[in-house]
Amino acid sequence: MSRKKKHEEHDENVTAGVVDEESPNIEAPSDETPVEEDPLAKAQRDAEEWKDKYLRAKAEQSNALRRADNERTEAIRFANVKILRDLLEVADDFERAMEAARDAESVEGVIGGLGMVQDKLSKFLRDHDVETIEAQGAPFDPSEHEALLQQPSADHEPGTVIQQVQRGYKLRDRVLRPAKVIVASAPPDPAPEAEE
Length: 196
Prior knowledge:
It is a single chain. This protein has about 200 residues and is α+β, with helices and mostly antiparallel strands. The chain has a domain at about 130-190: Head domain of nucleotide exchange factor GrpE (Nucleotide Exchange Factor Grpe, Chain A, domain 2, Roll). The protein has helices at about 5-15, 40-75, 80-105, 105-125; strands at about 130-135, 145-150, 160-165, 170, 175, 180-185. The strands form two sheets. Strands 1-4-5 form a three-stranded antiparallel sheet. The chain has a three-stranded mixed sheet with strand order 2-6-3, with no helix packed on it.
């Protein structure tokens, strides 16, 4: 049998599914033969991937910082909204008191209307944790009081507040405005009597 015929028979047998015991087991070359990748190309590809991840992370961080900055700016701009809404009620009461005062026939009506406004304002301050600094008769405290002057007094201990000129206020433990006060000082020594 010629070599060509033998080859043709073998091809027919393989196509028909018949395996010749004598024929050697020949495998077709595979397309999946592992080709070793160039290390430099792999390193460059990895570097590009990491650079892309870095740039994306940096952009996300920048966006997050910008959003946080915008939110902080908005919070600062509108931080006083609740307080101002509450204060508008006091302003409305004051406006009504002024209208009533124009139509009032007696001073008592005006005083009553202003008293209502004062009560509402006091409640507003309490609701927002603002309290008055009680200075009258208290020892002078430079962290809460501002001394306008010292006045000699025989009736008060030196360093005692003898008059509150303007009320002071605190927000929780922080002084918003110190109380303006007059503080007692020691009375001057009496002049010695001249000898006769």
